[in-house]
């Protein structure tokens, strides 16, 4: 299939969760020999209007990522020029999504709108109109599905496709040293690591060890809190680690604790659960993490530091594992096929109409 993606912003401009999701989808489809194009703002130094990287062809619609109006004016015609089988557009900009919809109409191709929702989804008039565009709306979790439906999307057009992990890579990575609990996330204002630290302080009289993976502006604050709670000697702040190192840590850990206040899809937790961890989630209204552990015998959902501490103790009674095939449904091959199944269905419906 010839697939045309639309997003002015990319990981080559800004390393955001939304842009990483888009890049992952591009790579998944290119790896399966589909012809993948991305219409975006220019990020390469060469004079050429296009550049190919990792089997993805990038088209410079504008020279500056902030040239939103020019991007929206040009992208419909640029899209039509490549005659795509399907157009797939990021929905974080309602104006760009509208332009992509015009491009899809000119190309006589179905339109997929990707609503990732990192940072929330606005509840204004342009966004409400945007939720009515697209033959299919792709979201990463039921949380985001609820957000887009509340803003006017037709629920029958909304499909949940999670962020992928690599099951083979989990299996092949050697476990690191055994630890009791791992936490992994950027340490910013939404990390809410204090919930875990306060729960661990309640268990000060027990023998446990914790590794915190990730860095960020709030790390010194959390290190001070661990010191104030007199538990700093049992917590390793490991900083940012490469994926292979993180997987090794997860395979060595017994519990993965997720306490962040906002999360549209808990990708690191998914890696951790596939690596055999027991999952403990502190519930928050703007986090989808609880979706991964609902109805699972090795998952706990908590609402307070006291419940979190009790869950850590209860998790100690469960078997230590280094792999869990329950999460094979999140593998890269499975997620790629979910996208392709949607594309094929839309193509068939579009051809019929």
Structural summary, described in words:
The chain is an alpha/beta fold and 353 residues long. Helices cover 38% and strands 21% of the residues. It has helices at 17-31, 68-81, 94-107, 125-130, 142-150, 167-172, 193-202, 219-228, 243-252, 267-274, 305-315, 332-352; strands at 2-6, 35-41, 50-53, 56-62, 86-90, 111-114, 136-139, 158-160, 179-184, 210-213, 235-239, 253-258, 262-263, 278-282, 286-287, 299-302. The longest helix is centred in the C-terminal third of the chain and has 21 residues, at 332-352. The protein starts with a strand and ends with a helix.
What CATH architecture of the largest domain do you see? 3-Layer(aba) Sandwich
CATH superfamily of the largest domain: Glycogen Phosphorylase B
CATH class membership of the largest domain:
Alpha Beta
Strand content: 15-25%
Major beta sheet summary: 8 strands, mixed
